Structure formats: C-alpha cells, structure tokens
Amino acid sequence: MDSTSSSTSSSPILALDPVAMTIPLALPPRRSEVDMIGHPRIVIRHPGYRRKKAYSLLFDSPSYDYVDDPSSKVRTWGVHYATIIVACGIFVSNTFDDVYLSRDPYGKEKVTVARDAILEAGDYWLQLRGREPPPDTPSLSSSPTTTSTSCTDEYYKYPIVPTFSDWRFPHDKLPEEWQQARQLSTYSSATPKRCFITDLRIGLEQGHVIPSAQKWWFVENDMARYSHSLSDTVRINQPDNLAILMGNILTAFENRAFVIIPKPSDTPSLLSPRPHKFAAHVISTTVEGMDLASSYHNVSIHDEYIRSICPEFLLARFAWALFPYLQSFLFEHKDERQLSVIEKPGSPHTNLWMNSDECILYQVRRGASPSELHQWRQGLGEADRWTSTHGSRKRRGGPSSENGEQSIEDRTNEEDDGYGENDEYKRRCVSRERSSHDDNWEDWEEGQRGRPRHRRMSSSSSPIRH
Hints:
It is built from 16 helices and 13 strands. It is an alpha+beta fold. The strands form five sheets. It has a four-stranded mixed β-sheet with strand order 2-1-7-5. A three-stranded antiparallel β-sheet has the order 3-4-6.
C-alpha cells in the first residue's frame, strides 16, 4: 500500500500550458509571387517600315518567361523563342520556316538562340527570307507608286494578315512544337470534372476553344477533320472544342489574356528532342493579366485534361487571341500597309494596300462590332478592352448537372456571348457605323458593288512563299 502510494506520488504530472499549445491557424495574406509591373517587353518591328520607326511596330509581347543564371544569380526575363516565332509566322501567312528575327532592320544581326531558349526582352525586326531590305535602299514615299520589285521600299513591305478572318489554318504544315505535341496527344472522350488550369472543382464553366462565333471560319477552314466526335451536333460544339475552367479563369480566356500552347517541359537528351507539354501562356499586359501570370503562367495542363481537346483547335485559338495585338500596326498611323486578305469566302489571299481608315472600313465589311470599331478609332489600349468586357460575360443559365455545373449540352446550345455573325447582326453593325464614317462611306459602297478601291500588287510582284 505504502509502496504503491510512494510510486504514485513520485510520478510527474503533465501540465498542459494553454498558451504553449496555441498555434497560428490564420496564415499571412496571399501575395502575388512575382511583381510583373515594369517588366520590359519584346517589341517586334516590320523592316519594310523602318524609315519611320514609330510606325514600324508590328506587335509587342510581355516578358513573363525567365531563366536564372546559377553563377551570378541574375534572372533574365523574356519569352520562349519558339512561341514568338510561331506568332510571327501566323501574321506572315504561316511562313513558320521562312521568318526569323534580327537586331537590326536589315537582317545582318540575326538572332541565333535555340527555339526552346528564352528571347531576352528588347527590340527585334521580323525578317522574311528573300525580302530583307538592304542598307542602301532608296527612300521613297510610303504609298506604292511603282510596279518594280527591286530597289524599292514597297518590295520589302511584305504583306501581313490583318485579322483572324483572313487567316487560313496551316493544314499539314504545323510548327514543329505543335507537331510533336500532336503526336504525343491521345484523345480521350472522358469529360474532365476539374478546371484545366487550377485543378479545382469550384465554379466550373465550359467555354469554346475556337469561339462558337467563329463557326463560319471553322467550316471554311475544314476544321471538322480534326474532331473525334461522330455525333450530329455541330462540330464546333463538340466536346473536343470545349475547355473546362473556373468562371474567373474562363473570363480571362475569353478576353484573350492567356492561351494554351506547347512549352518545353524537360531537358533534351541525345536520343530524343526536348519534350513539350501544353501550358498556360499569358499574353496580356493588364494588371489582371499580370496577376494571372504571377499565379498560372507556364503551369502545365494535366495530361488527362489536355487529351480531351484537339491540339489543332488550340493552335487556332492561339491565332485568334493574337490578332487584336496588331491594333497599333493597323490603326495608329496614316501610312498605307500592305495586307493579305480574303475578299470572298473560298478565294485565295489578295494583297491590298490600306491606310488606317480603310482598315476600319474593311473591318466593318468583315462584321466587326460597333464597340470594337469605337475602340480602334479612339486608340484604346488593351487595358480598356479588358475593362470594357471584364465581367460582362453572361452567366449561362438553364439546367445544371448534379454537382451544380452546367452540362456541355446546355452550354453549346446557346449563343457565345452575343458575338453572332448572322447577316442581320452584320447589317446592324454597318448601319450604326455609317453615321460616323460619312466621309468614307461612298468609297466603301463602291467597294461593296465590286469596284476596286485598293491598289493591288501587280502580277510581277514576288508572292510570299508558303
């Protein structure tokens, strides 16, 4: 009895300190990982318009990619070189193998970085092989006045495709990164239940990869050949043209803030080239785009998700997102540009010369909305375009699936954000624009009646190589 009591009294009593047991459950407020404000950009210029450098800007790109030097610990910002080259090739009629960048307007200081390297931020000139201007090219007027194809500035003003409507899909001519991604992609008909970017199941919505408003372009370019579905539903509404995203991410996707493209995913080996995976690539320079880049730029898409989308549709989406970035080249000048356009469905490209006002009228003919035309006339930047559309996208109504998400059928049977391309919609656009373009309307009507309004390139001019 005594021994038991002694043993009990000598045992230590564990006292729990309520202060010591308290842990901080509230984490610090989340901040963006990287401050993207103030980053230098990559500027791409057209050498044919080098005599007025301010008018030579073709497009620019934010530099959200980077590489770290382990020895100096210096971070260099830029853009994946192949991504820039593919974008340039799209603007120059899919001449992916014939375009390159140089640090001078004459193509003498050629950029020699590897395709999967980082192109450092700075000014570059987009050269088309065979159309590089020599340093001693005589100075002529900005408008074409001669049919000669030698020793004239006009010869070196190779044509640019101005709109997505004028762009043809490069069947059997995909850039090499897209060819590799296509070969590694195995289609799966399983519908993903998580966001492609965040891998979350919160607030999911479905959006078209090639926008449903572009269904005429879809048909004209025979994109149905890539669809894996055999159902009777319109091919542009098939599951392999749908992306599953959280509502806020889908808003950014529809506002062309980011695209999904192949990016290098590992170091190359002696036996195989560098593998690529589809990843989010942010192209917006708005504050919203910078926040998006801080969290999701270069984030790879899960293999099981990307297998539900046709890679060719993602390339078309990339092109669709790029063309608004030609705004400065097309509208912020008075000089004429040489453009490669499709005047009638099914017809080949025609090279025309247009000034900024004629570019706007041409957009009217192609069914541009009044709000877009107003932005072009006012010279509003990308931030204004985001502000004018951000949050305006209609929430999809109708029946929902069991988990509260709207089904594919519900989403695809509805119009895509009101950007229809039917004849009545185009007629209203033209009618509204007439009052603000009275000075040029007679010229536009003559063009509608088939009278040539733009100077065409002569038959002796050297065509772009395809």
